[in-house]
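input
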Amino acid sequence: MQELLMIPGPVTVSSDVLAACSKPMRNHRGPFAAGVYARLAERLKDVFQTSETVLTLGSSGTGAMEASIVNLFSPGDRLLALPMGAFGDRHIAIARAYGAQVEVIDTEWGDKPDPQRLRDRLARDRAGEIKGVIVTHNETSTGVQADLAALARARADHPALLIVDAVSSLGATDVRMDEWGLDAVIGASQKALGGVPGVAMIALSRRAWDAAERAQMPRFYLDLRKAKTAFGKGQTPWTPPFGVLLALEQATDNYSKEGRHSAFARHARFAEAIRAGCAALGLRIFARQGAYSNTVTAVCAPGDIDHKALQQLLRERYGVVVGGGQMKLEGTILRLGNMGAIGRKDIVTALAALELALRDSGIEVPSGAGTAAANAVFARAEAAKPRVAVG
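output
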């Protein structure tokens, strides 16, 4: 049985992206490779909405999270973090591992950070002791998306660097690095861009590059100064996962042809259809209204159902693979991703399988309610498209 991958990442990739991975190996320091790096960098500038250089790292997104800490700060620096789930907590753990003092503005899981709390805390920091603010734009562990523009405005003229984990939002929703004054933006290949795992991306603002020259945290493999110098020579400082980069080159080519705003609309439409379908089946959306993610939907089944057993049933009986809960949410939610090379048919298929799995688990659900609700979302989106006059 071929599995339908509906997890928060890695995602299903298109056939041309998959084929790019299997191209013959080339010299990673030759002219062909230099062309790949240059084309990728230009396309990623459009995704990040920046004029700055976007660097690629041979790592998962967590590698770029670590790079954002070790390149910009020194041991003992005070950072302010606004976590809203497991990956926000991970960024904090990285910073603390390198000796940063991290103050946390907690947000209940399922909700998004309040920009006013950030504004108030920074206003009290008259001595400028806070050197950086760490934000998770989209939290896949809870299916929540923060209001990044509002958080950027709340930082206002405080000198703290604004560090943004955009791993699961970049390419699916607006991330305006330059316009919003973001100082470090982090992405990864295996999410909304539809590549395969193995490459992280990071871009720094001018003042972040200045901070990188002063930072005293230990760094070697993740030293972005080395990566930037090598990029200027058409190379990478270390041997890169070249097949992954070829796949990402193809994925970004596909993305550029679709267009950034069309990709935003597609992800928003798919997420809305999943939420509507799950709600029609009696599942509770874990994220608060107004905090919904455009890429991941977390849901709770009714009653005392075993979510792990439901997840296993979906995979083994119906071939639909969804994510489970992480950390304190383990065994209490399912997480459905809508990134990658999937379409309307896949979402409707996943919802039909979820209906059957709920019935198999003893939960009574209205027949066809989930697929009908999702199809209604797609029909409204289709009706709203501008009509092209003929003749």
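quick obs: Residues 30 and 152 are 40 Å apart (CA to CA).
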